[in-house]
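Summary of Year 1 activities. Much of the first year was spent building the evaluation harness for sequence design. The harness presents a backbone, in tokenized form, and records the residue chosen at every position. We chose the following record to illustrate the format because it has been used consistently in internal testing since the harness was completed.
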């Protein structure tokens, strides 16, 4: 399946049978390239990774710069009723802290518990 169809756009075969007014016409042998801006953006080359950190912008202590992600919904509920989990990752050491939560709405409580 092409990116154009994944984005919910009409397939190239259907576009050949439809003219501007939506009236069916005979399929042409050659079709001009799609000029859809969404498709062009999706197929565009991604930019390079950001430059590596320097000593100036790198954290100097553990847990000063933290990345977080909320994951779930897991099929099997835990004994405590948790179906989601959020991970806090320290960029200085790579250490991870995981909080298990029952609902996505409880993420803020896990964040407050992590910061206190």
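For this record, the design step produced the sequence shown next.
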């Amino acid at each position: 399946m092409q990116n154009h169809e994944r984005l919910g756009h009409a397939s190239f075969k259907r576009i050949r049978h439809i003219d501007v007014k939506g009236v069916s016409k005979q399929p042409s042998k050659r079709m001009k390239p799609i000029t859809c801006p969404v498709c062009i953006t999706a197929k565009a080359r991604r930019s390079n990774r950001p430059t590596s950190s320097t000593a100036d912008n790198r954290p100097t202590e553990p847990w000063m710069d933290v990345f977080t992600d909320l994951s779930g919904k897991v099929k099997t509920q835990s004994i405590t009723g948790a179906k989601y989990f959020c991970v806090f990752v320290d960029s200085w050491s790579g250490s991870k802290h995981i909080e298990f939560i029952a609902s996505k709405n409880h993420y803020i409580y896990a964040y407050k518990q992590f910061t206190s």
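The chain has a mean pLDDT of 77. Quantitative recovery figures across the full test set are reported in Table 2.
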